[in-house]
Structures are given as C-alpha cells and as structure tokens.
Amino acid sequence: MAGVGADWNFPAWLAERRAAGLYRQPRRLEPLGPVEGMQNGKRQLVFCSNDYLGLARDPRIAEAMIRAAREGGVGSGSAHLITGQRRHHEALEEELADFLQRDRTLLFSTGYMANMGVIDALLEPGDGAFEDRLNHASLLDGAHMAGAQLRKYPHRDTDALGRMLSEDPPRRRLVITDGVFSMDGDTAPLTALAGLAPGHEALLMVDDAHGIGVLGDEGAGTCAHQGLDQQQVPLLVGTLGKALGTFGAFAAGSESLIDYLIQRARTYIFTTAPPPPLAAATRQAVAIARSESWRRAHLRVLIARFRQGSEQLGLPLMPSETPIQPLMLGAPERALAVSQALRERGILVTAIRPPTVPVGQSRLRITFSAAHSEAHVDRLLQALAETEHLWNAREQ
Ligand SMILES: *Cc1c(COP(=O)(O)O)cnc(C)c1O
Hints:
Bound molecules: pyridoxal-5'-phosphate
Helix content: 40-55%
Strand order of the largest sheet: 4-10-9-8-7-5-6
Structural class: alpha/beta
Order of helices and strands: HEEEHHHEHEHEHEHEHEEHHHHEHEEEHH
CATH topology of the largest domain: Aspartate Aminotransferase, domain 2
C-alpha cells in the first residue's frame, strides 16, 4: 500500500479478527431445492435463510420475471423521477398498498436504502430518533445519516421509552422499531408503542422486514397481526427480499407522507429504479403470499414441532413464536463450534456473532421455511441432540 493508506494495516487487522473468532466470509451455496444446497462438496439442509414462505425459487415468480424481461428488457435505465418508472413499478406499489391496507406505497431498491432514505428525509440534525436497542443496523444508520440524536431504549421496554420521551425537550422525533426482531424473533409491543407515540408528538415507524408475509391472516405483517392500521402505525417499511422471495423494499403510509418521501428521500431520488422485471416478479410473489395461507399454517406447525422437541432436549431457546428461533450460545467460538458440528452432519445454520448481535450474545439463528417438512425439523433436532456436548453449558 505504498504511501497511501499506510495507517491501514489490513493483514494485522484481519489476523486480529480471526483470533477473536469474528472473521467472516461468504460461503458459496449451490441450491439443490428450496431448502437444500451443496457447500464445499457436501449436501446441506438449510436452516438460516429468510425465505420464510419458500418463494425464492418459485417457478411462477421466475416466469413472471422472464416474461417481463422479454417484453421490456432488464434495466430501467434511470431513476424513477427521470425515465425509470414503468407499469410494473406502479402496479406493484398499488398492489402493496392494497395488501398492507395503506393509502400508498413507494418502492426502494433495498430495505437498507429505504430505512436510510426515510429516516434522513424525516429528521434534521438535532431531532430525535428513539430506537429499540435491538433495531436493525439500517435503522440506526438512518439516524446517523440524518444527523439526528440517536436514543436507544431497552429492548421492548415501553415504560423506559415513555420516560425518555417525557424528559425529552420539545423537538421532532421518530419512534422506530423492528416489527419482528431480526436476530431474536420476538415481536415489538406495537399496541403500546402506538398508544405512546402520539401523546409525545412522535411519529411511529415500524420496519416489518421479518413480519411481512409471515404474520397476519394474509401475511400483511406484525401490524395486521396486532390489529393496527395506518392511523396507529403511520409509517411502515418492509423488504421484498425475505418472505416475498424477491428483492427490493417499500415504504407505506398516507398519500402526503409518500409524496413527501418522493421529494426528500435521497436513496429514492438519486439511484436507478429497480429492474421492472423484478417488480413484475414481486407482483406475482405478493399474490401468492396473500392467497396461499397454507404456507403460514405449515410454518406454525414446524415452529411448534421444533419448540416442543427443543424443550425436551433442553436447548437454550428464546421466547419467539416466529420462524426465527435462535439458540443463545454466548461466546462466538461456541456458536462457531456448534455451527461447524451441524455442518458436518449436513445441517446449515450460520453462527451469528458481534457486531450483528451484542457482545456475549453469539447465537445460532435457526429459521424455518414453508418449504421445510416435519421430517426436516426432526433431522435438525437429531443433529442438535448429537452435538449437545458443544451447546449444553452444564456439560462444560
Ligand atoms: C434485512 C433487513 C433490512 C434490510 O433489507 P434489505 O432489503 O435486505 O436491504 C432492514 N430491516 C430489517 C429489520 C431487516 O431484517
């Protein structure tokens, strides 16, 4: 690194990272089916994707994408506000609004960009972003991008949040929470938050990346599941890359809120509109997610089976009723060891370590998909039983 960047000793930094058990790298997976794939020449049953409804490889969705690509090509060619806006984008925005019971929605390229853009559009330097301590990184980064003061409240603690809001000087503020917490699988107390925010003149924003498609009768998410509408949750964001099985994201709310975001959200304005065939694919995905309720019912069966089996084994489960069922293991080395032992048995669950989760809370983030069978859950439980010496603290 002659001259430039002499302060960045990459090899030393990487070596330290490895020594701490925190080194990460992408590992190639060749899909063999909705929940199976080859990795390093070994067949793995996958329990760590976010493809909750098993739609990522659905041939109907692929077909919709291919058809749209044949008709209109792949690229949008520019931003939505220049010449990038197409029929499929507008139809998807309308269908998402109908699905989520919101006045209007706005597409973003990714959930990360949606959160950055939305929070930055709503908050100015000196405003307040009140966020659950376990919110997704993109929600914290949105507050940083806006230059707002980030105030984290203890996980799901609405009393603590109420006190913080009471003591806060008068200013503009957002209360921001995940709907389903991405690494823990529990849900936010949305009814309490929706009751609290207006009294403190705060706007409630819910990121339902892991609830959309999964919770609620038609899969409209955590808000619908808890019986809350646009009045109570004025700002909803979500990704299309998880349960819906495609890619991209949206913000949803009132007509004027969305119109405001179109004027102000920099990650919407200054970026190329997503490929129209992607929007066409997502339209098909939304239709399937809404109508095929058996996928949600099957997920509930798998989750119940796993939790019952885990209890018998004495696994360190967390209080979650969603397809995210983490096993808390503590030290990163421990999470890596269990993950490795499972991989040797053909079960793929990646270890989640800091900075994705707090220090001392490394875990295996087990997730279920509607494409899993009950026999798959039993195979996972069997592999966990065989590796008990690695995860059971009493045995160490
Ligand atoms: C995954 C995730 C995001 C990011 O969405 P992408 O579309 O993957 O960028 C945002 N928020 C939460 C809570 C997430 O889990």
